[in-house]
Amino acid sequence: MDFVVKEEKGFKYIEEGKGNVLLLLHGLMGELSNWEHVIKEFSKGYRVIIPMLPIYELPLLTLGVKTLSKFVHKFVKFKELENFCVLGNSLGGHVALIYAMSHPERLKGMVLAGSSGLYENAFGGSFPKRESYAFIKERVEHTFYDPKTASKELVDEVYATVNDRHKIIRLLAMAKSAIRHNMAKDLHKIKIPVALIWGKSDKITPPEVAVEFSHLLPNAELTWVDHCGHVPMMEQPQEFNRLLKDFLKKIKV
Fold first, then answer.
1. Strands (E), 26-160
2. Crossing angle of helices 165-180/91-102, nearest 10°?
3. Domain residue spans in the chain?
4. Which end of the chain is flanked by fewer CB atoms within 10 Å, N or C?
5. Tens digits of residue pLDDT in 83-115
6. What tens digit of pLDDT does each residue of 116-154 get?
7. What are the beta bridge partners of residue 107?
8. Distance between CA 169 and CA 162 in Å, rounded?
9. pTM of the predicted model as reported, rounded to 2 decimal places
10. Alpha carbons 67 and 188: distance in angstroms, whole number
11. Fold of 6-119+182-250
């Protein structure tokens, strides 16, 4: 990925393009590069910003989805963002939902892809065979509809992460925080327009999760992406971008 990661006042982020703001939030195992196709396409007409969520930097005792939402708000204030659209994949979607409940006045809309917040079938709160490269490869492939989408580079990245003791402790703490923080009773409070762009073959947050989100969020529309798993903007980028464009036109962003 050819984008420059900026570092200012304790924040690391990518910022490309000019115009209305799209704020992108990555998942637990996600990297900024997961959003590469969105940045390339939308930075032509939008200001696309991706903060690096400080999953490995926050103190272990305060680590959780609510803490990440507070971090996002600090970042939003630092960048002086108003009337923007937030996009979240997986854990990033969960953080976006909490943020939308706390600061609806700043948002024009929200896009969720494979979001946690209701139910997720992740690593089950542990990595029983994290020393096994074959096991990690299988788990990364499980994220996608087509196992070939899990490049060697991506598997190597995840393998290195889960075998770093400092990182794995924080990953498991964050995963447990997300599982404990079920939002079913709170989602009716989020009135902003929400696009649910969901992989039809998502095995981590399966289709029934998307259907439940569409019932619980008052102003949500659900669109399926065929031949696609948990990360539609990586696995089916053209279709994801097309659906995102449609939504942004609808909400006039």
1. 47-51, 84-89, 107-113
2. 50
3. 6-119+182-250
4. N
5. 999 999 999 999 999 999 999 999 999 999 999
6. 999 877 654 556 577 899 999 998 999 999 999 999 999
7. 84
8. 9
9. 0.94
10. 22
11. Rossmann fold (3.40.50)
